[in-house]
Amino acid sequence: MPNLHAVVQAGGRGTRLAPYSTVLPKALMPVGGGCVIDNLLARFSAAGVKTVSITVSAFGPLIRSYCGDGERWGLEIEYIFEEEPLGTIGPLNALRHTVRDPFFVTNSDVFADVDLDSVLSEHREHGAPLTVVVTRQVVNIAYGVLEHHSGMVTDFREKPSQQFSVSTGIYLMEPSIFDHIPPSGPFGFDELMRTMLARGVPVNVYEHHGSWIDIGRVEDLRRAQEHAELAMRAPA
Ligand code: GDD
Ligand code: MG
């Protein structure tokens, strides 16, 4: 059994969550009995993760003072401070020469009940350098939608909705992922996807059917808080 490692990307500015994010990083936004990162760290620990790297920027000292050495989750936590924003994938370069086994990566602003054991076993089964945990999101259009061609209506749908498979910001990666990440500088998940697709490198998806909320906007943070409140009140 390899020593399972996880990385939490927690160095973003969180501007869409202002004014809360002017005093707190998204990782430390209150949800349930603790904050967003509690749920992530507890899930990693339950899945057998032993060590965690948290990549941080200006709010790093605050995150470190909350999470400490990770003992309360049975984890060993290290903090990786960055001077300039490296994006959602670039901070992984700090691990480029040390990782030997598959490792989890997650955004710090997701509140979800993903079954990480299943992610790991599906990832092992498929053997690609990257597994992306995805979930279904429905976009509702509040209007009648017309298709038209040469000034004539060809189709009409009243208030249609469309489903998309979206990235949850939770991944499982092989060390070979670094073949597709430039060795320094900012790099985003969007750039990683485009690079891998252009090179024809396989990327697995793991479909998550449970709850998932990116708490990056005030209304979504509220929704996560309500969800956690209900879950805490539900009989065991
Ligand atoms: N260390 C570090 N450095 N972390 C960063 C940086 C950075 O420069 N920029 C962002 N992060 C961290 C944020 O703190 C957050 O936890 C996570 O990376 C994602 O950043 P967001 O700014 O919240 O990204 P997003 O929500 O717009 O989009 C990303 O997440 C979606 C899922 O929630 C993308 O990866 C989307 O593809 C994905 O669907
Ligand atoms: Mg986000």
UniProtKB/TrEMBL annotation:
Pfam families: NTP_transferase. SUPFAM superfamilies: Nucleotide-diphospho-sugar transferases. It is an enzyme of class 2 (transferase). Keywords: Nucleotidyltransferase, Transferase. Residues 6-228 form the Nucleotidyl transferase domain. This is Mannose-1-phosphate guanylyltransferase. It comes from the Bacteria. GO terms for molecular function: mannose-1-phosphate guanylyltransferase (GTP) activity. Its EC number is 2.7.7.13.
